[in-house]
């Protein structure tokens, strides 16, 4: 794979141009000038380790859930089948949110969460909502250049542009998530509202 740069200078942890991930896998910049390592195993650590070890970048949508699918068709199929419960736990570890908080954002009641854990699979609707909040997290992470700590601070503080609502809470609905994505897009382009 080749490194694709669009209007940005991409550098690794050493400050040199970034052409390989720390694990040795080649990287590719996709989705709005973001560098995503192809080696997902290097990103399966808890949030505290991620915050200390430097920037985190995901290669594809849903990567913060531990999903390795690259095509939209594969992602749609995975949502329709229902994600494995492990994807909720992976997202919890990547973000530092407690599993109960993630379940709350996705709209899974406590007792249902226990049932999902025992069956090992989320419903298609729950999977779609989990994918929605993971996409918001991934886009916000790209905005903050891989800083999980700054991303979480931004996602958990009220924003005037959202009517003084918290972005993660606002993202519980599809319409709210689109507004948060629009806000992230405006911030990326320097439009401070």
Descriptive account of the structure:
- The chain has helices at 47-53, 72-81, 85-95, 99-106, 110-119, 124-143, 148-155, 167-170, 174-188; strands spanning 27-30, 34-37.
- It is mainly alpha-helical.
- A two-stranded antiparallel ribbon has the order 1-2.
- Helix 3 (85-95) crosses helix 4, helix 6 (124-143) crosses helix 7 (148-155) and helix 6 packs parallel to helix 9.
Describe this protein with a few key phrases:
193 residues; mainly alpha; two-stranded antiparallel sheet; globular
Oligomer: single chain
Structural class: mainly alpha
Instruction: Enumerate the strands of the largest sheet in spatial order, edge to edge or round the barrel.
Output: 1-2
Number of separate helices: 9
Give the fraction of residues assigned to helices: 40-55%
Following the backbone from N to C, one meets helices and strands in this order, namely EEHHHHHHHHH
Mean pLDDT: 77
| Rg (C-alpha, Å) | 16 Å
Q: Describe the main β-sheet briefly.
A: 2 strands, antiparallel
Give the number of DSSP strands. 2
Distance between the termini: 38 Å
Sheet-strand content, in percent, reads under 5%
Shape assignment: globular
Residue ranges: pLDDT <50 for 5 or more in a row? 1-52
